[in-house]
Amino acid sequence: MTDDTFLNGVADALAALPAVEGVALGGSRAQGTAGADSDWDLAIYYRGAFDPDHLRAIGWEGEVSAIGGWGGGVFNGGAWLTIEGRRVDVHYRDLDVAEAEIARAQRGEFDVEPLMFHLAGIPTYLIVAELALGRTLRGEVPAVDDYPAALRRSAAARWSQMAELTLGYAAANHAPRGMVTQCVGSIAIAACQFAHAVLAAEGTWTTNDKRLLHAAGLQEIDAVIAAAGDDALAEAVARAGALARARLESATARIAGGTDAA
């Protein structure tokens, strides 16, 4: 079975579920960066009440969560499936929530929510990024064009502030006590926070942590963490901060003072 035949069949089945108004392809498959073993990320956009039992009834192998089963918030559940030998993730997307987050993003507003596998949590505008980067397969989903100028400024400022606080706490409390795990964890979290700040400043959408540091040009922090040891914790915290600040300064240069409205 070809990929196109497979995708069309899955999209048809998802689009036929009650309350579903649109189906979109996301992730590396939508962006043209997938490898042979990449999974398939699909989102079902529903209006009103969606019942996961309808998805379970299709009979695909795997785990189907309840609404809110992934912790609630904007990422409110989904399924990890195997269909025709292919790994498929299906994400629940409430259209009312998506439309509200698009409006908030236009105003430069967002929250940060915890989500498994995302070290620094996720910004609620991540579902807006999905719409910007994804490909609609069936029905209709909200259209997202450019990265909002207000969000570029607010997200860059907020993420960088969180990163500075994270590193500052590690430098003042963890490093002097030789707390290796806490220091390394703080550097990792702050690196992700700085990466979100850089990408926001540049107006670049991102949807997950897998290549977050690379996308933001902060992969050098890998070497900082690899070299960290009990005798070099304070230096590692300082080096990671210096690398990230230099990259962020370059990214924010064009929007300093609100001069870049792109």
Automatic annotation (TrEMBL):
Query: Which Pfam families is this protein grouped with?
Result: NTP_transf_2
Question: What GO annotations for molecular function exist for this entry?
Answer: nucleotidyltransferase activity
What name does UniProt use for this protein? Answer: Polymerase nucleotidyl transferase domain-containing protein
Top-level taxonomy: Bacteria, Bacillati, Actinomycetota, Actinomycetes, Pseudonocardiales
Superkingdom field: Bacteria
Q: Cite the Polymerase nucleotidyl transferase domain residue spans from the record.
A: 11-65
